[in-house]
Amino acid sequence: MSTSSTPAPGAVQVTNFALPPPTASNGYGTIPTHETPTTKPTSTSTRVLAPDLLRGLILPLMSLDHAALFMGAWLHGTPEQSESAGTIFTRWNFNAAYISRTVTHLCAPGFFFLMGMGTVYFHRSRAKLGWGRGRMTRHFVVRALALTAVNEVMGLTLMWGRHFWLINIVLIGLAVDYLLTGLLCLVVDGTERSVAGAIDGMLVKAGKGSDDAARRPLLANGGSAAAEEQRGHSNGNGTTAATPVASARAQTLSFWLHNFVLAVLTYITIFWNVWLSPSGGHCSATSAQPSSFSQSPIELLALAPSSVSTMAEQPPSPPGSRFGPWFDFWFYSVQNKRVMSGFPPLAWISFCIFGMLYARVMLYKRWTPRAVVAWNLGVGVVLAALFVGTRVLHFGNLSEGCLRMPEQLAHPERNQYLVSIKSFFYITKYPPSPAFFFLTMSVNFALLALFSAIPPAVATAIPGLMNFGGSALFFYVAHMYLYFLLAIPARYFFEHDLPDTPPNAWERTKGLGASAPFWITWIAGLFILSPMCRAYGRFKAAQSADSLWRFF
């Protein structure tokens, strides 16, 4: 997220990446970089800090989750069974595992949210450079295919012996949702101009507008991305054709109308995980065993060092819906002979749409740094209040009546989420429940507020975060192979019988546990990854705008 020149001292910074410096901004701190969106770097630019710092934090948290799987540190869930919808849980994981897994829940929502933000920034920056919709569409398609190809290569190399055609730990979900969000961004751009023109016509007919209103800009200082793009649009060959600009009033109405539609889409796409759940997210009061929809965590099956075929029993597979396997892939975790998918694309797209909405608001007007901090904190507080509502009012959960821990059995008359701290913060990830959305995004917004408040000089001194945040896909690929390799000697020297017997016969009972060798190996991996990411970031900055290397 950069601009093409260094702003004057004290100037309000911009959020867009790869843009000439517009007059509107969002108040995020920035740092100098040396990249431009055209060919190779020729001028100094600025890069927004807060989103990169957030990404740079959630990446090592993600690596903790995967390192724990490779080295057998703990069972993969806050309850020992799993974190799947409509599953009866009878035992919590031990404290270190519960806390670690709860914290790492921030990662996937953060990735999808930041990706949704990125499509808005990308669209605006490339529109400034004269890219037409066709060229942007090709970019979205190529990037989605590139993510899919990377996923398949990793599946064939790291997960050899599983005999699956497709293993979707997260990249396939990101690829599909990136494409869908990018196309949605183009649709919103086109309809926003059309609706503004239609509103102008209605205002003129109603006597509340004037015929020359279409020639007035939205804001004197340049206004929103929509306003700028309505003054001129790419005709597909790199030139810009003048187009009528709707009145400021019409543009404002159209802008907020589209934001309202995106907010409604966010609501629908997170709550349909509840509406489409085979059990409605409830467990039967008469069930004594885990429900038929119970399943093993996909990450555990995919990244465990031994093939599940060598274990005592095969893990249970989730049942198919009445709509068939093709429908299931989009909305449910899937595990069959050919496909293992833990991140159904349409179950996670709400985070991307929410990111689109957030980016549009941030690019709409001037934001001082203090206003950005207050805005992020405010959104975080609202989301936290909604999460508390899911606990108290029993809405937006996929685990109603499913917690059968000792504390629930001791107090069957009480709200299952309010009998213990672990129960209160338990959230369903497969697929993500609205409660999962509210809790994880409230914390992500609190972190955005924190990183927005940190002076740039201090922020860039935080070890590793900028290196990780600027090369996210490279980090993802590299950390998988690195911890896979580090786990070999770690298990050879330090593997032992785990004290907690797994509740499922198909899970391993040996590993490092939450021991000092595990934590040391994980931290050592981050020290190795940091200079690798920094070097790759420099290499990426020297590539052209269309280079596939920039996708990493």
From TrEMBL:
Residues 233-242 have a biased composition (Polar residues). The chain crosses the membrane at residues 96-120, 140-160, 166-188, 255-275, 339-359, 371-389, 435-461, 473-494, 514-533. Residues 30-45 have a biased composition (Low complexity). Residues 1-45, 224-243 are annotated as: Disordered. It comes from the Eukaryota. Keywords: Membrane, Transmembrane, Transmembrane helix. The keyword Nucleotide-binding does not apply. PANTHER family: HEPARAN-ALPHA-GLUCOSAMINIDE N-ACETYLTRANSFERASE CATALYTIC DOMAIN-CONTAINING PROTEIN, MEMBRANE PROTEIN-LIKE PROTEIN. This is Heparan-alpha-glucosaminide N-acetyltransferase catalytic domain-containing protein. It comes from Kalmanozyma brasiliensis (strain GHG001).
